[in-house]
Design goal:
It is a single chain. By secondary structure, this protein is α/β, with parallel strands linked by helices. The chain has one domain: 3-Layer(aba) Sandwich (Rossmann fold). About 35% of the residues lie in helices and about 20% in strands. It has six helices and six strands. A six-stranded parallel β-sheet has the order 3-2-1-4-5-6, sandwiched between helices. Helix 1 links the parallel strand 1 and strand 2. The longest helix is centred in the C-terminal third of the chain and has 15 residues. It is globular and about 45 Å long. The chain starts with a strand and ends in a 13-residue tail after the last helix. About 40% of the residues are buried. The structure holds flavin mononucleotide. The site of flavin mononucleotide (FMN) has 16 residues, from helix 2 and helix 3. Belongs to the UbiX/PAD1 family. Keywords: Flavoprotein, FMN, Lyase, Prenyltransferase, Transferase. GO terms for molecular function: flavin prenyltransferase activity; lyase activity. It is an enzyme of class 2 (transferase).
Length: about 190
Amino acid sequence: MNKKKIVVAITGASGSIYAKLLLDNLLKLSDQIEKVGVVMSDNAKEVWRFELGNEDYDHYPFTFYPKMDFNAPFASGSAKFDTMIIIPCSMGTLGRIAHGISNDLISRAADVVLKERRKLIAVVRDTPFSLIHINNMKTVTEAGGIICPASPSFYSLPKSIEELAQTVVSRVIDLAGLSMESYRWNEE
Ligand SMILES: Cc1cc2nc3c(=O)[nH]c(=O)nc-3n(C[C@H](O)[C@H](O)[C@H](O)COP(=O)(O)O)c2cc1C
């Protein structure tokens, strides 16, 4: 199996726990991964501090890029990152991507993934959605992106918030083409 080069973008939607769990999961999948580059918006850091009560995103052994660093490899298609996961993805970031407004590293990296016909997974979070949000999701889907709403499932009978949030992150891992054991409906 070819090892993957993955961009994880974290934005300021509610649900920092999804980003934390994804980074935790990626650590455990290092045999399938060549590189993980991470970029966070300012609001992502603020929401992480508020919702998780720490700044532990600094503790991961991945390469973190400043949000305006257009020298990051994945700001160009030539670096050949396979997959970009935006988790959680705010409506603001979704809108910028849908309209090609590449004015920071997150929206530029998404622009690159779409133009190179690689995999973009946007774990969108807001409720309810306006028609603007829905149209932006449609646009990104038509451009080849995958909208994976941060909608947890309950049929695995999760016992904690972490287990509940993991139901979303497990789907993201599957969509990214990584192999990981997780609950699967009606499988022993
Ligand atoms: C605690 C908190 C929770 C938020 N939750 C959401 C959310 O669920 N969805 C959303 O689209 N924006 C949410 N926002 C607003 C975004 O952070 C804001 O629109 C920001 O400009 C997004 O910028 P970014 O996409 O660059 O992170 C939240 C803000 C805060 C402070």
